[in-house]
Design brief:
Blueprint lengths: L2 H12 L21 H7 L46 E6 L4 E6 L4 E2 L3 E2 L4 E6 L5 E6 L2 E2 L3 E2 L4 E6 L4 E2 L3 E2 L6 E4 L5 E6 L5 E6 L4 E2 L3 E2 L4 E6 L5 E8 L8 E8 L4 E2 L3 E3 L4 E6 L5 E9 L2 E8 L4 E2 L3 E4 L12 E5 L5 E6 L4 E6 L4 E2 L3 E2 L8 E4 L5 E6 L4 E6 L4 E2 L3 E2 L11 E4 L1
Antiparallel strand pairs: 1-2, 1-37, 2-3, 2-4, 5-6, 6-9, 7-8, 9-10, 9-11, 12-13, 13-14, 14-15, 14-16, 17-18, 18-19, 19-20, 19-21, 22-23, 23-24, 24-25, 24-26, 27-28, 28-29, 29-30, 29-31, 32-33, 33-34, 34-35, 34-36
């Protein structure tokens, strides 16, 4: 039986559902994406750092078994109750133009762009959904910043940027603590640092140097721990290895590492209870891997493998992103190399039929509306954002965003 047909029938029968949660958890407490062009330039000079997403995800028991990883038998796909109309606003970074563009999700209309300092590469939203923080100043081949090293606050009630906060090191990713009081900015190479920012005063503290370059950062909901993916051993080339480790916010120390038997981590989502993390990476040119991490046990589960079309440049420079539906049942993995979005049933670890973006190249970043009605995929080369109706898994008419071709759509977040 066709899954889309079942979705349509159930969506009609069950009707709308109220918005879930104060803020879409897939789009807060962490920045969503780092600019693709920076990752491509860094391939020869250093390990690239990317940005992460925190999400509401229940622990997926099925993916932590001891069976060998590989193709899984298809299981019945539970069709979630999905509201008919998206609510809230999306904000998308355009790095090349130095702007953040709001999108009204009820009408799919792009608003007046917001100018920010320098070249924006990452974005995070406070848990109350009132303020966004945009990090600018990516490194070029891991050596020199390409623009001002700043974090710019944006008042989301008025879409007004505030005074930029100057940083010592160029930022690669940004996360915000669950209480909304502190931001954490990472730079993987060359400085290998984490910088705290007191958001009440806009004051950055002295950067803390880690023992290995951080690739991503995600905040645990307990407010005591962040989790980072780090590069180990060789810091350049396809032989570099990656670990996953807790970062104690009180002591600024890395805890016990969990080895990742996959390619370069591109995005991460963590369950609100601090039980499970999901890491998306691309170990080969024909496969994308989503690795679940049992955070209590400190071990990786069976990888969820998504087969994709072969690409000419494996491993580096391939945009990947992940977002989780607010009910925690389904993950959506965006693949910039194939311009598709693949749903994954998290209860069974089963990937479903990829959603094609109607020929619009990109799929650099993804976020989901706060009520779970639609996903929004930022496509860099075509300068568009494609809505996907999650009741039917069908893409809708792309939303045109200014900035021009190859302008760098690096992050997208949603707020109610």
């Amino acid at each position: 039986m066709d899954d889309n047909w079942v979705r349509q029938v159930l969506a009609t029968a069950l009707g709308d559902e109220p918005p879930i949660g104060p803020v879409a958890r897939n789009s807060v407490r962490a920045g969503i994406r780092l600019r693709r062009r920076v990752r491509m330039r860094r391939a020869a000079g250093g390990a690239a750092a990317v940005v992460v997403a925190a999400a509401v995800i229940p622990a997926a028991h099925g993916v932590f078994g001891h069976a060998a990883a590989g193709p899984r038998t298809a299981a019945p796909f539970s069709v979630p109750k999905v509201p008919a109309v998206p609510t809230g606003t999306a904000y998308v970074i355009t790095s090349g133009a130095g702007i953040v563009t709001p999108i009204d999700l009820a009408t799919n209309t792009a608003g007046q762009p917001i100018d920010v300092s320098g070249e924006p590469v990452a974005m995070a939203v406070t848990p109350d959904g009132k303020t966004a923080y945009v990090a600018s100043g990516a490194t070029n081949s891991g050596r020199e910043p390409t623009s001002a090293q700043t974090v710019t606050p944006i008042d989301l009630t008025t879409n007004t940027p505030g005074r930029p906060i100057t940083l010592t090191n160029p930022p690669d990713a940004i996360g915000i603590a669950p209480d909304g009081k502190t931001a954490y900015v990472i730079n993987g190479f060359p400085s290998r640092t984490v910088t705290r920012i007191d958001l009440a005063t806009g004051t950055p503290q002295t950067p803390v140097t880690l023992s290995a370059p951080p690739e991503q950062i995600a905040m645990a909901p307990d407010g005591k721990t962040a989790y980072v993916a780090i590069a180990t051993g060789q810091i350049a080339g396809p032989q570099v290895q990656y670990d996953f480790a807790p970062f104690d916010l009180a002591t600024s120390k890395l805890g016990k590492r969990i080895k990742l038997n996959s390619g370069q981590p591109e995005a991460i989502a963590i369950a609100p209870g601090g039980k499970t993390a999901y890491i998306v990476s691309q170990p080969t040119s024909i496969e994308v891997t989503v690795t679940p991490i049992d955070l209590a046990a400190g071990r990786a589960g069976n990888p969820i493998n998504i087969n994709v079309k072969p690409v000419l440049t494996p491993y580096y420079g391939l945009p990947l992103a992940i977002a989780i539906a607010p009910d925690g049942a389904t993950a959506y993995v965006a693949d910039g190399a194939t311009s598709t979005v693949t749903p994954i049933d998290l209860a069974t670890g089963t990937p479903r039929k990829p959603i094609s973006l109607n020929g619009k190249t990109g799929a650099d970043a993804i976020a989901i509306s706060s009520n779970g009605a639609a996903a929004y995929v930022a496509n860099e080369p075509s300068s568009t954002v494609t809505p996907i109706d999650l009741a039917t898994n069908r893409p809708e008419k792309p939303i045109k965003i200014g900035g021009g071709w190859n302008s760098g759509f690096e992050a997208i977040v949603t707020v109610p």
